[in-house]
Amino acid sequence: MANHVVFFVVFFCSFHLVSTVVSAISYTETTDRNPTTSVYAEQTLSLNFELVLKRLENLEKENQLLKVANVELSTKTLRLEEKSDQLEESNIVLVEEVKKIKESLETKTNLNPEIAENEKNDDRSKSKKSILVGGGKNATTPVGFTAVLTHDVTLGPHQTLEYDKVLTNIGNGYDVRHGYFTVPISGLYIVSATTCSGANEGIWTEIVRNGIQLVALYGDDYDFGSHTIVVSLEQNDEVWVRNYASSGTVHSIGTRYYSSFSGVLIAAA
């Protein structure tokens, strides 16, 4: 369509050019006796030629652009048709799979409705439970974390020890930014902490729940303070390790994770 339009425009301009040339020649023949008039006619004819040539050039450029656009549209149309075919094929496959599943369920229900119903209930029950460590009660989500210290830290009075590298954080209870474990599920937990003291100095730390000490740890001159406890915790309780002396350094270096903090839910309340 675009090519037909361009052809019509080019034909019209050519016709206009011929008319202009004929008019100019006629005018020249009638005025060639007057030199001034003849010069004017030649200038007019030359100007008309230039205008027509420019129009032809512009039309040719527009024609090329239209051809490029036409090719792009054709390519896009072809791709859309291919995608449509692929979607149609996928839809056919899905319909067949749904049909097979439906037939299988209907067959099972017809053979023994009681068995089919029991299997559905078992599936629902399994999806809601997960078996926890230690043979405890089943709960909605397992909870467990371990974080370690990767560098020396000097602590002031009651300053929290932020174990900065998380090895395990199932349930997302441990906050590495602040060193706190926030209890996501009420229940019975195992909580453990280890701190390694620096050279020629002691380190006094404690495991606290909501700011109240549960147990204390002590190490002196590259020695370890360690405690593992079993404690009942309520949802949203906060447990962390902190220094309780005036000041002290907890030691750790490279990948030798001397100091660690862990907790695991063994039975939901």
Low-confidence stretches: 124-139
Radius of gyration: 44 Å
Shape, please?
elongated
Helix content: 40-55%
Strand composition percent: 25-35%
- Count of alpha and pi helical runs: 3
N-to-C SSE series? HHHEEEEEEEEEEEE
Q: Main sheet: which strands, in order across? A: 3-1-12-6-9
What class do helices, strands and sheet pairing give? alpha+beta
Give a concise summary.
This protein has 269 residues and is of the alpha+beta class. The protein has helices at 2-31, 35-111, 113-128, and strands at residues 144-148, 153-155, 165-170, 174-175, 180-182, 187-196, 202-209, 212-220, 224-233, 238-243, 248-250, 260-268.
Describe this structure in words.
The protein has 269 residues and is α+β, with helices and mostly antiparallel strands. It contains three helices and twelve strands, in the order H-H-H-E-E-E-E-E-E-E-E-E-E-E-E. It has helices at residues 2-31, 35-111, 113-128, and strands spanning 144-148, 153-155, 165-170, 174-175, 180-182, 187-196, 202-209, 212-220, 224-233, 238-243, 248-250, 260-268. The strands form three sheets. The protein has a five-stranded antiparallel β-sheet with strand order 3-1-12-6-9, with no helix packed on it. A five-stranded antiparallel β-sheet has the order 4-5-10-7-8, with no helix packed on it. Strands 2-11 form a two-stranded antiparallel sheet. Strand 7 (202-209) and strand 8 form a beta hairpin. Helix 1 (2-31) packs antiparallel against helix 2. The chain is elongated. Residues 124-139 have low confidence and may be disordered.
